[in-house]
Amino acid sequence: MSPTPEPTPARLRTIPSRLIAGAAVIADRLVSERLATEGARKWHFAVLVALAEAGAASQAELSRRTGIYRSDMVAVLNELSAASYIRREPDPVDRRRNVITLTPVGRRHLERLDTLIADAQRELLAPLTPAQQGQLTDLLIALTDHHGVGHTGQSHAAGGRAR
Amino acid sequence: MSPTPEPTPARLRTIPSRLIAGAAVIADRLVSERLATEGARKWHFAVLVALAEAGAASQAELSRRTGIYRSDMVAVLNELSAASYIRREPDPVDRRRNVITLTPVGRRHLERLDTLIADAQRELLAPLTPAQQGQLTDLLIALTDHHGVGHTGQSHAAGGRAR
DNA sequence: CTACCTTCGTTAGTGCCACTAACGTTCATG
DNA sequence: CATGAACGTTAGTGGCACTAACGAAGGTAG
User: Fold this and answer.
1) CB-side exposure of A103: number of CA atoms within 13 Å?
2) pLDDT value for A1
3) Where in the numbering of this chain does the HTH marR-type domain appear (chains A, B) (predicted)?
4) B101-117: string of b/e by CB count within 10 Å (b at 16+)?
5) How far is the CA of A78 from the C1' of C7 (A)?
6) Number of Cβ atoms within 10 Å of the Cβ of B65
7) Class of domain B40-137
8) Which of A90, A117, B131, B147 has a CA-to-CA distance to A124 between 20 and 30 Å?
9) Which of B11, B20, B152 sits opposite A20 (nearest CB)?
10) A31 near B CB under 8 A
11) What residue spans define the domains of chain A?
C-alpha cells in the first residue's frame, strides 16, 4: 500500500538557485570527506594553494586571494601553523602585518591535499562528459565573475570605531 | 604604491567544487535578500511549493519532497503555521502523523514568494544567454540526479534507541 | 608635528544550514 | 504480543558567511 511516495516536485527541481545549492552540498561533502582523511578542511587547502601559487603574503592578502574573511583567517592560520605547515612572523617593514610563509612540510602536505581534491572533482563530475565538464566550468566562471564572487563588504572601512 | 594586489590564483578559480560553492553563495544571497522582504527563508518557499504541487502531506513526506531534514522541518512548520500559511493537524488514519495543509493565505503568500524567486533567478542568470541558462540547468540536473542530491542517511533506522 | 583616516590582526558573536542522536509514540508484522 | 520500523520532536554539533568592535601601526594633510 504505497501512500503515494511523491518525490521532489518538478517546480522545485528546476529552480537554478536550488540546483546550485544542491550541487554545492554534494561537492562540499565529497571534498570534506576526502580532506578529513588528512585532518584538513577546504580553507586549509585554499590558503596553502594561495601561498604556493603567489608566494608569502600578509593575512589580509591571503584573505583577498582566497575569499576567506580576515576574521576567520586567524583560526585557519592558527591550525596550519600548529601543524607547522606555515610560519607566521611579524613583517619587519610594516609592523601591522604578519608574513605568512609556506614551509617545506606544508608544501608536501599540499601535494597530498591536491590529489584528494582532484579525486573529489573527478567523482563530482563523473556523470558528465569531458565536454560537459568544460561547459559547466565555463558557465560557472562567467556567473561568479559577473557577480563579484564573495565579499559583500570585506574591504569596507573598519578603522573608526563606533565612538 | 601597490604591493602587488595579486588576486585569486588561477588554480583556485578553476576548481569546480569551489566554483559551485561560490555560485551557491551568490545564489543564496540573491534569494535570501528578496525573500527577506516578505519575512521568509528559502525553506518556507520549498515547503509551500511542495504543498501546492503535490497536495497535503505528512511532515516526513514533506521532508522527502524538499530535502529538508525531519528535525529542521519542525521549526519551519512552526513558523509557517504561526503565520497561518499552513495548518498542522493530527492524521486521523495514522496517529503518528500530522497532516499539513496549505491555507488560502498560504497560497497567496506563495504567489508573492514566487515572483521574488523568479526575480532572483533572473538576476542570478543575467550574465548568461538563454541558451547557456538552459545548459547550466541541464548540467546541474544531471549532476545532482547522479549523486543522490541530499540525504546522507535521512531514512536510516531510528526506532531502537541506544539502550 | 599632529590630527585623521585607513589597514591590519584579533576577539567575539550571529544566523543559516547540514547533519546526528536520542526519545516516546504509534503502526505494521511475524 | 513482541519486535522493528516510521513519525514528530528536542537537543546539540560543526562549518561557513558575515558583522562589529577594538588596539596598534602606517600614510597623508594640514
Assistant:
1) 14
2) 41
3) 13-145
4) ebbeebeebbeebeebb
5) 21
6) 22
7) mainly alpha
8) B131
9) B20
10) yes
11) 39-119
